[in-house]
Amino acid sequence: MNNWLWGEPTLLSVVFTFIAIALVAAFIPIHSRRITAAVAQEPALKPDQTSKASHFVIRTPTSPFQTRLPQEIIQFIFAYIHPSHVMRFRRLCRQTNSALSTRGFAALNLSLTVDQTLSFKCARNNSSDSDSDIATEVTVRNTAMTDFDRLWFMWPATYQFYYAEKVLSKLTKIKWEDPRLKRMGTRFRHSASASFRKLPHAVGGLTQLKCLILTHMNLQGGVVSSLGNLIHLHTLSLACNRLSGPLPAELLQLIHLKVLNLSFNQLDGPIPRGISDLSQLTSLKLNDNRFTGSIPEQMGSLDQLNLLDLGNNELTGNLPSQVGNLRNVYYLDFSRNLLEGSIPCTFGNLEHLRYLLLHENQMQGEIPFELGQLEELDMISLKGNDLRIPQNAQRIQSFLWQQIRSETEANSMSNM
């Protein structure tokens, strides 16, 4: 029943479109008679005004909606058309565009579609249509995306704010992704058929959220500053999108954040020094972007970090020695950047370090002997640099020889 009412194909949308046309047609004769009466009452032109007669033109409206229909009538006509189609009618004329762009119309249109959908779910699950039951349904509903959730990213701002307030504001967790784009992997970045989406500013009104995961969504544009309003957030992942621009300063207000994953985007600019304000971070992934500048020394104060991945950016300068203060870190990736200098000897303090990836940089000097004394170290990757192995560092040598053998085997398998 619900799909028949509001899903594809939208049968009621077609029906109400015809009703709209019929109502408009009813107004045309009335308006035409008013024009005729107005012309009949015009005084005859005087002889000295005959030269101006060629400039006297009666203009009839090119669209029925350009008549002076009350805005409420226009809104009532279009309110029954499904939200996925109604915005197309904004192009009819300026008056229609103005009527369909108000928050009031967004509330009316969505209340006749979204609210009925939620009421249907409540009736099925709770045998009640009360407002409290609708709120409960919204709070505990499955976090998988609905058709309306998908439309949320493409609606005008008036629709986005109303939908966020009435439908999404009670949620504590959102985990959405596009399965088709996920199957495509990173190839979706070059796909012209992928639907365009932007992260709505209305997301800042979802202040109950503790977990926000929007991956493989083809999100474009910048990271909106309104995310700074989500003060209860502990997990934020916008990975595998097309987000661009610098990180907004408001993001550093999420002091309870534990997981921040912005990898595989097109973000640029420097990594803000205020990243140290996110003192509860345990996982920070900014890899596969276009970040520039040096790695902030303040990052060494994130003593709760277990994972730090800054690989495949355009970072320059030296590795800060303060990274050696990350005593709980087990995974460090600074590979595929433009880093220079040597490996700080303070890395020998990382007693829980298991993976150290520094390959494809411009680093020089001698590998610290202390790295060979890290008992939990399982992998070290240093290729593509100009680093020297210290004497009597058999453990480091064995790591490097093991890496060479693995790469040789991988290449031989790919050539078979």
CATH architecture of the domain at 127-411: Alpha-Beta Horseshoe
**CATH level 3 topology of the domain at 127-411:** Leucine-rich repeat, LRR (right-handed beta-alpha superhelix)
Q: Name the CATH homologous superfamily of the domain at 127-411.
A: Ribonuclease Inhibitor
Class from helix and strand fractions: alpha/beta
Q: Please list the strands of the largest sheet in the order they lie side by side.
A: 1-3-5-7-9-11-13-15-17
- Tally the beta strands: 18
Supply the number of helical segments: 12
Report the radius of gyration as a whole number of Å: 31 Å
Instruction: Provide mean pLDDT, rounded.
Output: 79
Write the layout of secondary structure elements.
Elements: H1 2-6, H2 11-40, H3 71-78, H4 83-86, H5 94-99, H6 103-111, H7 114-126, H8 131-140, H9 147-152, H10 157-168, E1 173-177, H11 179-184, E2 197-198, E3 211-215, E4 219-221, E5 235-237, E6 242-245, E7 259-261, E8 266-270, E9 283-285, E10 290-293, E11 307-309, E12 314-318, E13 331-333, E14 338-340, E15 355-357, E16 364-366, E17 379-381, E18 386-388, H12 394-414
Parallel strand pairs: 1-3, 2-4, 3-5, 4-6, 5-7, 6-8, 7-9, 8-10, 9-11, 10-12, 11-13, 12-14, 13-15, 15-17, 16-18
Helix pairs in contact: 6-10, 7-8
